[in-house]
Amino acid sequence: xxxxxxxxxxxxxxxxxxxxxxxxxxxxxxxxxxxxxxxxxxxxxxxxxxxxxxxxxxxxxxxxxxxxxxxxxxxxxxxxxxxxxxxxxxxxxxxxxxxxxxxxxxxxxxxxxxxxxxxxxxxxxxxxxxxxxxxxxxxxxxxxxxxxxxxxxxxxxxxxxxxxxxxxxxxxxxxxxx
Length: 178
Prior knowledge:
It contains ten helices and five strands. The chain is of the alpha+beta class.
């Protein structure tokens, strides 16, 4: 899987939950998916439009009413839906679910499966800003999904980051090239 696709998909809060619900067999109608995900209408609509723009979903021709369309996964959407289901399956509680829906959480966890330095993470997630990366790493560390280690003998100090616990489970669910 291409990391840029993962970054694009996770840029909308409800994209992964929508894909995971479709993978689980939830009917692909807007009302059914809203009820299954628990999303608000506006945020859900934005995420659904985003998935359509990315080419992961398409309108199901010949099904549904023009005002209440049905959707289906595209070829690339089928693969991404499986990954989304594995990622969402790791959420043990509402805190984990909220963290997964944050814009940079999943891509950061994906690239920190092997231990990495700040600059290496930033390099792999090209559009991320230093501030967004720093804040996301801090939130993930505070919630027990990320571990920060500092080698006190090294000068200058260079912390390394590694996904742990539920964060490591999320990282394993994402097939990325080495």
